[in-house]
User: Fold Ornithine monooxygenase from Leptospira perdikensis.
Amino acid sequence: MLDILGIGFGPSNLALAIQMHELNVFENKKVKFIEKKKSFVWQPGLLLPNTNLQIHFLKDLVTLINPCSKFTFINYLNENGRLLDFINLNISCPSRFEFNDYLTWAANKFSDYVIYNSYIKQINPVVKSGEIQYFNVNYIIDNEEFNVDAKNIILASGRSPKIPEIFSHEYDGVSIIHSDKFTSTDLFEKTKQEKDGICKVAIVGAGQSAAEIFNHLIENMGSNVKLYNFIRGYGYNPSDSSPFRNQVFNPEFVDIFFQLEKNYQKEILNNLSNTNYSVVDSDLIEEIYTKLYHMRHIEKSDKATILSMTEIEKVERTRDNKINLTYKDKLTGNNKIEEVDYIILSTGYDQVFIKNKYFIGFNDLLEQKNNGEIELNRDYSVKFNVPSNSKIFLQGYSESSHGISDSLISVIANRANIIAKSLMLKEVISK
Ligand SMILES: Cc1cc2nc3c(=O)[nH]c(=O)nc-3n(C[C@H](O)[C@H](O)[C@H](O)COP(=O)(O)OP(=O)(O)OC[C@H]3O[C@@H](n4cnc5c(N)ncnc54)[C@H](O)[C@@H]3O)c2cc1C
Assistant:
């Protein structure tokens, strides 16, 4: 029986591993993490050149809890012999490549505890005399099924790409993909190649991922490619990362947010959505504008176009396997059709999926909100409606109860610290 099983080994469970290391949990507890990928990599589908971390590097895996830890970003720079070179860059947001390298450096220190290339299928509670005793977890390695018992589970398997209903019947992961897989698809390679005939690519969405892909393709696409970015609003909205706004990402704000009445929590989340959702970093907006200006006025080219104020209403496959996008131009009220070869959906992520994915056999044991979301305690543990000797903690699925920072890196050190301390309480660790 494992004392602690982590599902997924991305930044959230990596931060937890660090907290458990610093609190000496590994010394006397049986701990394993199960991770779907073959080795550690952070958000590989959008690991593009010239993209940066969107938070200060001091909000790394551990600094906010223990600035003297050996797992800080600064120590990573130091161990890799480039602390001074980094200082001379004079930046607070390193490239995503470098931050991925930092995370990989930290993750490699825990490789004895991680089973890579395997994934969790289902969690089943073992209930005796009306009380949850432990969990039996079903996982797959190379198509073979295994089971393991665990006293406590920390679920941090990330979010699930959102495919809007209107695209779902034609979605094939080849000609229509989600931005989450951008770098791992054929499309990424194909748009770089020079070919005969025009290849039209539509990007749907107005957030950071859409803008990053648009910007990347403008620079790297072959001369036969034509690019469209379908946007519901009028151009990109800038993300608000001003200092007062940034205070909502402070760990203390989670305490404030958690004890608010539900309707105020909703109001705050709506009010803060322009810090994270459907918004683009201002520097990137400037960069794209400059490129489009140059393209349109100097090169006299219409190879890349932002179609603002558009609503896609119909998606149909043509006989020659292209895709017709019927959309409303909200500025004129007219319906138009664009035939494209590829569609990249930068349409965000879903965090509600976990209930039906992992908790399917025991939904009836969960405390749930009116909208069906799982109720959590402040320490991120799931509320059961029966007594339980064991706990399941969720990392990254509690924006509605713990606030807007929940899916971001800003709070991962503090959240991991809370969970690690909660795990150390006697009643949740088996003897
Ligand atoms: C392109 C991109 C850039 C981002 N940049 C920033 C940023 O700059 N700043 C910021 O604060 N946030 C950023 N984010 C938000 C992002 O959510 C966090 O950076 C971070 O990745 C969250 O870590 P996580 O471990 O919770 O989830 P993830 O990083 O998604 O990791 C989850 C892990 O679980 C694994 N997994 C999934 N299912 C299973 C299963 N069934 N069994 C086993 N393993 C499984 C996955 O393979 C993955 O490795 C970004 C997100 C994206 C998509």
